[in-house]
């Protein structure tokens, strides 16, 4: 996983598509969904941490 697109594809694999036309809100919703997937043990710790790094770097760019 190297990009925001990869994070979106990970979420899509579990039936989650996020698009609100507000990029900042989208990133926050994606982070919440990633946390929930990890809490429910659907994704590994490595996927979780990598996804969070990507989402946070995108948040800093905005």
Q: Can you describe this structure?
A:
By secondary structure, this protein is mainly alpha-helical. The protein has a single domain, classed as YqgQ-like (Helix Hairpins, Orthogonal Bundle). 71% of the residues lie in helices and 0% in strands. It contains three helices and no strands. It has helices spanning 4-13, 23-39, 45-61. Helix 2 runs antiparallel to helix 3. The longest helix has 17 residues, at 23-39. It is globular and about 30 Å long. The mean pLDDT is 96.
Short note summarizing the structure:
With 62 residues, the protein is mainly α.
Using the 3D structure, state the CATH architecture: Orthogonal Bundle
Q: Could you say which overall geometry the principal axes of the C-alpha atoms support?
A: globular
Task: Flag low-confidence runs.
Answer: none
- Put simply, the count of helices is 3
Structural class: mainly alpha
CATH class: Mainly Alpha
For the sheet with most strands, the description reads: none
- Count up the domains: 1
In CATH, the topology is named: Helix Hairpins
Would you report the number of β strands? 0
What oligomerization state is this entry in? single chain
């Amino acid at each position: 996983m190297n990009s925001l697109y990869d994070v979106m594809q990970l979420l899509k694999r579990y039936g989650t598509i996020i698009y609100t036309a507000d990029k900042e809100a989208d990133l926050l919703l994606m982070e919440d969904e990633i946390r929930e997937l990890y809490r429910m043990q659907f994704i590994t710790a490595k996927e979780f941490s990598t996804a969070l790094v990507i989402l946070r770097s995108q948040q800093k760019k905005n």
